[in-house]
Design brief:
The protein is built from 4 helices and 4 strands, in the order αβαβαββα. It is an alpha+beta fold. Strands 1-2-4-3 form a 4-stranded mixed β-sheet, with helices on both faces. Pfam families: CRS1_YhbY.
Length: about 100
């Protein structure tokens, strides 16, 4: 599902107060990080990922890899922070997705 600009704006405002949950460091984007991102998205739907100063990863490449492998949407890339969204597979964790779907295209 690709997000519209209105949906992106809504998610961006929701993410403003969030703290980064996942940090990518010198080991780069490995399977452990991907699993952490997948679990965090399933639990929260909207997360922030930070690329630490000591990583050699590029934020655009990281976003592309996560979109392909996890199936999430990139809401925003700013500096070394990445905001990701994915509708939760568990119904009890879907707090944001009904609001996102309600926003007209």
């Amino acid at each position: 599902m690709s997000l519209t600009s209105k949906q992106r704006a809504f998610l961006k405002s929701e993410a403003h107060t969030l703290k980064p949950i996942v940090q990518i460091g010198k080991n780069g984007l490995n399977d452990h990080i991907k699993t952490s991102v997948r679990n965090a998205l399933d639990a929260r739907e909207l997360i922030k990922v930070t690329l630490l100063q000591n990583t050699m990863e590029d934020i655009h490449e990281v976003a592309e890899i996560l979109e392909e492998e996890i199936g999430c949407d990139t809401v925003l890339k700013i500096g070394r922070i990445l905001i990701l969204y994915k509708e939760s597979a568990k119904k009890e964790n879907r707090k944001l997705s009904p609001n996102v779907k309600a926003i007209q295209k």
